[in-house]
Amino acid sequence: MNKNVIFLLSSILLFSCSEKMENKNVMPNFVIIMADDLGYGDLGCYGSATTQTPNIDFLASEGIKFTDFHSNGAVCSPTRAALMTGKYQQRTGVEGVVTAKSHRQVGLSLDEITIAEELKKYNYNCGMYGKWHLGYSKEFNPSLQGFDDFVGFVSGNVDYHGHIDQEGYLDWWKNTTIDNEVGYSTDLISEYGVKFIKENNSKKTNKPFLLYLPHEAPHYPYQRRVDKVLREVGKPGLGPISEDSIPSIYKEMVEVMDEGVGKIIDALKETGAYENTMIIFLSDNGASKNGDNGLLRGRKGGVYEGGSRVPAIISYPNKIKKGLISTQTALTMDLLPTVLDFIGQKPSTENIDGISIKEHLTNQAVLVERDVFFGFKNKSFIRSGRWKMISIKDPDRTRLELYDLSTDLSENNNIGLENPDLLNKLNEKLTIWKEDVRKGVNMVAQ
Prior knowledge:
Blueprint: H1 3-24, E1 29-35, H2 54-62, E2 64-66, E3 69-70, H3 76-85, H4 115-120, E4 125-131, E5 149-153, E6 173-174, E7 177-178, H5 185-199, H6 202-205, E8 209-214, H7 246-270, E9 277-283, H8 305-308, E10 312-315, E11 324-326, E12 330-331, H9 335-341, H10 358-363, E13 371-376, E14 379-384, E15 387-393, E16 398-404, H11 420-438
Parallel strand pairs: 1-8, 1-9, 2-11, 3-12, 4-5, 4-8
Antiparallel strand pairs: 2-10, 5-6, 6-7, 9-10, 13-14, 14-15, 15-16
Helix pairs in contact: 5-7
């Protein structure tokens, strides 16, 4: 055979092998999209007959949909603290809401190592666009906690058009500087996400990325794209909203967010990043009275399933099979160790309470048996297999309730009196957990 031909064939084979090896070693991108107060029944793929969410439904068809995924808290800040750290939020001191009125000088400690800081160690570009809610002062800004770029707001919610928080403060930041801009917050969050994907294309940067998009929708104030500003700088409170109009506005807010999810998917496909990107979509807690928690009892802020059982979807082409439904119990705090496991790493801090669910996602392995816990104000619960024990501390007594979620998902039948030994055993575990996660912790918000 001609020497030139042999050389050409050898070069092609070498290039092909090296390309396959390079592709094999490419680190995955991660996109985490968090809705705000989105209920278990607010999406088409979770049974909504009124709200159209084709793009989120597409993610469910492309990956795995969880039916027993729980936000770590039943309100905003605690869940976000757990997501960032992989810990029960109590260990971070963020057990309650970091409010615009009473918590303007506190936040998630800079000593905590966030998911962004973990990934930065492995050459990731990290961007965040949307709601932080883990500290109002710029010393707690996400751009100082691992994110290379941050645009959004640090409060619990802003006027969707004016970007003014509940206490009348202008709240639209570009890293550590307040820099307001024109736009509907849901659209701005999606637009910045698309821009980040295009600018951080791994083919150009040779670096993988983490994109965190914590949306405001469908949290109040209830505003459409075409509505007027409802808040005013320097004045706490909110302009009037007709109660009758809220259902239609709420529906539109969810659908606009879904449009944004579609744009994120399109941007990933256009840049060739889709196949190598894990997309995680979830809610920070259950719906308020204006949302839909399906057949679940209770709502945001509560101790029943409607407060913490949330829609959660994870897709990753060629790594996670399409159209899976998981009945396993998972929590927000599991995401940090899971993401790190997908790049062959482990969390660098102690007291990580979350577990990696990688093998469950990729091979449908059953998750390790564990008790999981919840605590907010005077309410707490323990989940142990099919059992759920609730503790509600009233001024004069503590009420204990027991439910078998395998037969009573709506928590209609309290069977505590029929199972005193089990009730006492679970209550003892819950008491020990409360002491453990709060031991030596400086509480930021309760």
